[in-house]
Design brief:
114 residues, mainly beta, seven-stranded mixed sheet, four-stranded antiparallel sheet, 11 strands, 57% strand
Length: 114
């Protein structure tokens, strides 16, 4: 089993920044890609960003140029730097890890006030 713990969410004004972290523990050997999804109230969970084990990132169009994914394999941690935040970014952000099957964190709330 893989345990994922997110941190770094909070309340920020439009245009502000936040940095999310996701630390993996447990059976971490063999983890491949890691990344982020988000779910806003009343909406389906949507893809935000993904980073491969070698560091190649992919982003949703809605966050390109504003969010940056990074990964520290020595710490088994991925980060999501979120800049120029908008009210539409308000959601619960979930970290995931691909180790054959997907593992998910408990989520961290990000709220962007207008």
């Amino acid at each position: 089993q893989v345990q994922l713990v997110e941190s770094g969410g909070g309340l920020v004004q439009t245009g502000g920044s936040l940095r999310l972290s996701c630390a993996a523990s447990g059976s971490i050997f063999g983890i491949g890609a890691m990344g982020w999804y988000r779910q806003a109230p009343g909406k389906q969970r949507e893809f935000v960003a993904r980073i491969s084990s070698s560091g190649t990132s992919r982003y949703a169009d809605s966050v390109k140029g504003r969010f940056t994914n990074s990964r520290d394999n020595a710490k088994n941690t991925v980060y999501l730097q979120m800049n120029s935040l908008k009210p539409d970014d308000t959601a619960v952000y979930f970290c995931y890890a691909d180790r054959g099957s997907d593992y998910w964190g408990q989520g961290t709330q990000v709220t962007v006030s207008s």
